[in-house]
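User: I'm writing a short report section on ligand binding and want a predicted complex to refer to. Could you take this sequence and flavin-adenine dinucleotide and write out the structure as tokens? A short remark afterwards would be nice.
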Amino acid sequence: MDELKRVPIKEQEPVERIHNFDEVCLGYTPDEAAKEAQRCLQCKNAPCVKGCPVEVKIPEFIQLIKEYKFKESYFKILETNLLPAICGRVCPQETQCEQNCVRGIKGEPIAIGKLERFVADWFRQNCKFEFSKPQPNGRKVAIIGSGPAGLSCASSLAKMGYEVTIFEAFHKPGGVLYYGIPEFRLPKEVVEWEIENLKKMGVEFRTNMIFGKTFDLEDLKQEGFDAVFISSGAGLPNFLNIEGELLNGIYSANEFLTRINLMKAYKFPEYDTPIKLGKKVGVIGGGNVAMDAARVARRLGSEVYILYRRTEAEMPARKEEIAHAKEEGIKIVELVSPVRFIGDESGHVRALELVKMKLSDPDNSGRRGVKPVDGSNFVFEADNFIVAIGQSPNPLVKKAIPELELNSNGSIKVDENLMTNIEGIFAGGDIVTGAATVILAMGMGKRAAQSIDRYLNLKKHKNL
Amino acid sequence: MNEIFIKQNLAPNVWLMGIYSPLVAKKAKPGQFVILRVTQNGERIPLTIADFDNEKGIVYIIFQVVGKTTSLLSQLNPGDRVIDFVGPLGMPYEHSPEDKDYLFIAGGLGIPAIFSKIKMLHSQGKNIDIIIGGRSKENIFFENELKKYCNNLYISTNDGSYGKKGFVTDILNELLESGKRYDEIFAVGPVPMMKAVVDITKRFSIKTLVSLNPIMVDGTGMCGGCRVKIGNEVKFACVDGPIFNGFEVDFDGLLKRNSYYQDLENISYKEHKCKIGLGE
Ligand SMILES: Cc1cc2nc3c(=O)[nH]c(=O)nc-3n(C[C@H](O)[C@H](O)[C@H](O)COP(=O)(O)OP(=O)(O)OC[C@H]3O[C@@H](n4cnc5c(N)ncnc54)[C@H](O)[C@@H]3O)c2cc1C
Ligand SMILES: Cc1cc2nc3c(=O)[nH]c(=O)nc-3n(C[C@H](O)[C@H](O)[C@H](O)COP(=O)(O)OP(=O)(O)OC[C@H]3O[C@@H](n4cnc5c(N)ncnc54)[C@H](O)[C@@H]3O)c2cc1C
Ligand code: SF4
Ligand code: SF4
Ligand code: FES
Ligand SMILES: [Mg+2]
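Assistant: Sure. The structure tokens for the complex follow:
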């Protein structure tokens, strides 16, 4: 076998997968996983670990795979990463753990993410989740938002004996894992399994509960919560603020993906929520959200174009997603920027006027700027457009706690312990960092749990 | 939770339901709405909080059967539950303490959106006139309930079978032409009606508020599907509204956006009617 190459992983063929929402990557078999694990050099200084935001014990869990000790391997990962089946699927590994892998110098880095998900999937399919409840410590923590930050904070606190309640605005928990990232990249079954486990750990989920509307800080105090963790995400969709953006047929990626993932509009009329997509669709943006929207649109039968300001090389999306999108026949139009939408009599969008862009030399940070080329405007016709140019923090929380200190971009300001300017109220995930990644949100949730524990212990100590 | 407590038929295809939801009842304020789901495969639909009883924990909704989801809802009975019921959403109705004379105009299913406001203003001793309108006599409901809270109740029907023949705007026009003045006019109903009201009140420069009903998904400012043009700005009706200054609303744009899914909604409703044996 070629030591420099990864053990190939089975995927659904593009021609087949554009007709369904089943997962694209089919995962390793135990033998394939063990074979890939063999390539790991078990480096003493393990540079891969330094690339991982939560420092998964990579050589150790891979060694256990080599020995076919999958269960042990799972628990090894779990020591630092609470959601391996999810991170193994959606982490931008190529810029994190795998970027640092020594194997990557000459050949292909170890498929750390794929191995991680293999172990987690194997455990989910072959073992029962067991949890021996620790002695309750009599303290209650409220968590606002059930995305990865909230879930990981809940899990850590539950293990310390806290009584944890997660409040979620939607009717389903999971945050972006549920309503944002599509089924073919992250099956909802995986997310639901993690949530079921949290329930078994005693974590209470209260859905349809909107902080700032259904309940507020005063209610939490009255219910006897000792601390609060805010992990409400970056839910506010950015628009381009150009002419014609209210025309029918223009979706924010949030709306498009929520209709699809949360409301299952792709199964209309079996499910009641409608979605409408014509023959040709333009997706504006170059991040993970744009790729997801484009690939969903492809599966609904449309011809899809991604319209991006810079070039493919600068796209913030994961490389794997870009590659998958291209395999599925999605075309990338580089160096274009939207000017205005053009509609018809009935108020439906028909086209987007674009201007061509030019890359400038890299600035100090190494990022290349772009500027419009005068007089290069042209019209791009399509039946629908999906705007995927980022999300900002939802202002609901701020409205509910006016005294909460924010950063200039609307995100919540926290100290090194992730505590906000209000004592006993902590925050983490996208609401603090702005739109980031699952693993960062998860890491912050865990850190917040440790801070909350320290804070409450100290408070108790002082009161004695 | 979410149990239907009472159900009452108000007019053909119009139902009142009291739903047990103490959390929503506790926080509800006039002008706000809820989002509910009826079945596991169901969509989320917004309905105005017509009234609420904090002590009993009950939220009242009044809805008209216009498609699949409202039809499913109308088939539930006391003791049944809606699976999701979330709120209160949107910004509460605000009024300036100095204002004394109010005119409320409700066309079609506008009544739920004016009822709790009227009750509140009445309790503060304000002068309230109301115009309600419908196609025909059988479409007029809540007459007696409204009478309790106002000085004058004017009624119009398009076919003249009850009250004055014509539209609510005919009565409005008459009142204003005859010299009657109000500090604030609040209009809610079908988009063309609200637009027609504003066209008249603009001439008389009377502050006019409207309550908008764009298509919504989450109701928390997360999807932007409910965006409407207000003056030169784009607003999300679910968090910035649903009440806006009528002079600034782009009604034509709203009307177009509201019709976007009509073909699919019809498919959905037709299939549903066939299933329950009402199909043509
Ligand atoms: C389409 C898409 C694709 C992505 N792909 C990737 C990827 O491949 N890899 C990756 O690492 N990252 C990806 N991300 C980013 C990643 O999902 C986020 O960084 C991460 O989910 C943030 O976690 P969080 O817990 O902070 O917030 P979220 O996951 O946003 O969860 C916040 C939760 O809080 C709830 N909430 C909000 N306001 C309130 C309130 N007032 N009251 C109660 N509940 C409230 C929301 O409904 C939501 O459930 C993607 C994001 C999107 C949108
Ligand atoms: C803030 C707000 C308050 C409302 N209050 C009331 C009320 O008190 N009583 C009442 O009878 N109706 C109210 N409506 C309208 C109500 O939401 C729609 O009648 C309902 O969604 C129709 O669903 P359907 O499946 O039965 O009909 P469909 O056949 O699906 O739709 C019929 C029409 O209803 C509108 N509609 C459809 N889906 C939605 C949606 N998700 N959100 C908003 N509108 C939609 C569209 O204009 C559509 O053409 C309100 C709407 C809003 C936005
Ligand atoms: S959590 Fe993400 S970054 Fe860390 S090892 Fe796993 S895949 Fe790599
Ligand atoms: S750097 Fe690569 S080869 Fe070395 S231990 Fe980490 S995964 Fe294995
Ligand atoms: S309904 Fe989604 S933002 Fe208003
Ligand atoms: Mg419907």
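A remark for your report: Chain B touches chain A through 42 residues (CB under 8 Å). The two ends of chain B are 37 Å apart (CA to CA).
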